Amino acid sequence: xxxANHLGSDLSVSSRRLPRPVAVQSVQVHANxxxxxxxxxxLSPESIALSLGADxxxxxxxxxxxxxxxxxxxxxxxxxxxxIALCLERSFDFIVSALAALTSGAAYLPxxxxxxxxxxxxxxxxxxxxxxxxxxxxxxxxxxNGTRSIDLRGVRCD
Length: 158
What we know:
By secondary structure, the protein is α/β, with parallel strands linked by helices. 35% of the residues lie in helices and 23% in strands.
C-alpha cells in the first residue's frame, strides 16, 4: 500500500482493482422536477406517478392537472421569485399544487396544517407569499393580510 502526504493528511491508496465503470446512456439535463414529470408523461403517460393506499395517479393525469393549476396560478400573479404557500395534508393535492407552483416558475412554501393559525400567519407574512393553496376548512386558517387563498375544492384541475 502506497501512502502520500498532502496538506498534512495521510492518503492511503489501495492496490485493489476498482470496479469497471458502468456504461451510461446519454442523459438529458432537465431544468427542474416539472420538466422531468412532463417528459415522463410524454414518454410513459400511463405509468403510475403517485400512489396513496388504493388510489393512484398516472403521469399523464399528474402533468395535466398540474399544468391546468399552473395556468390558473399564473393568471393570479405566480412568477419566478414569488413564493406560493401550500397548506395541505399529505395528498395528491399537495403534489399537484407543488408541481403547479414549479411549472408556473414560482417557488412553493410548504406549511404544516397542524401548526397553530398564528404561526401560519407569521410565516406567510414573513415570506410575503401572495397566494396560499389549501382545501376546505384549512383555507381559513392559512391566510394572512394581503394573502389570497385558493381553496382547491373550488378549483377544477381534473
